[in-house]
Amino acid sequence: MSQQTYSVLVTGGAGYLGSILVPALIAEGYRVTVLDNFLFGQAPLNQLCADPKFDVHHGDAREEGVLKPLLKSADFVIPLAALVGARLCDLDRTGAQTVNRDAILTLLRLAGKNQGILMPVTNSGYGIGEKGKFCTEESPLRPISLYGRTKVEAERAILDRGNGITFRLATVFGMSPRMRIDLLVNDFVYRAVTDRAVVLFEPHFKRNFIHVRDVARVFIHGIRNFESLKDQPYNVGLSDANLSKLELCQKIKEHIPAFVFLDAPLGEDPDKRDYIVSNEKIERSGFQPSYSLDDGIRELIKGYRMLRNSRYSNV
Description:
Elements: E1 7-11, H1 18-27, E2 31-36, E3 54-58, H2 64-71, E4 76-79, H3 86-91, H4 93-110, E5 116-122, E6 134-135, H5 146-161, E7 164-169, E8 171-173, H6 184-194, E9 197-200, E10 206-211, H7 212-224, H8 226-229, E11 232-236, E12 242-244, H9 245-255, E13 260-263, E14 276-277, H10 280-284, H11 293-306
Parallel strand pairs: 1-2, 1-4, 2-3, 4-5, 5-7, 6-14, 7-11, 8-10, 9-13
Antiparallel strand pairs: 10-12
């Protein structure tokens, strides 16, 4: 089967990652079907509707009757549909379990053994790392939040089933048609652009970062090299960006000199994310990120000249 004939089903394909990934898959020559519930009332895939390689369905990825007919023609499935983030999952604990874990179990039950599955999971599964010690794919998974636990359970199910790849994503950043300002880099740059200030809690907690376009690129890398990569998890992040919140703010200040940041004991991360991550395994497979943290900050500054979170204000 040639690359051009592959059909890919993407659940949650209109979200922050999907609205970058789906156009990238189509540009590679794949036929792409998106299933999404369009929960946020946005239509970030409008520009694809004229392309015969694109199809879209409005529905819920948890419903067997919705999922089953769409699976019939798929060579690969990328299940992006999820409640992403610890706070969102705590707001809807039932939804977190049924979307993040149970929908994956339904997908695995319905999918044929020859259908490949590539799924994003999260570095949050590592919980609190050991100081000075890199988390590798062999490190123990100790998720703290409900979000982390559901993602770890879904990953285990995919790898136990076989014919799947999981990507343990670092904290993602960058502009997207279905934008998320709540992600850490995106949030801090937004505050730097609009408020010129941020108050930090847990300023020395470290984590890894990755551009949303590099996440799309790693999925394409996974499809291209599926046979050699399958049945394994892979950390995906920028190896030069294992940074604390304080170091991230210092980096942003290089681009926005007026940015001021202070630390105060005002809160805590529900995931307790404090770890450094090794991305050596995916890099050995031939994948290298193309977008640096500086690239992302410059991009976000431009984006926030257009985007203002002013729904409930007059200015």
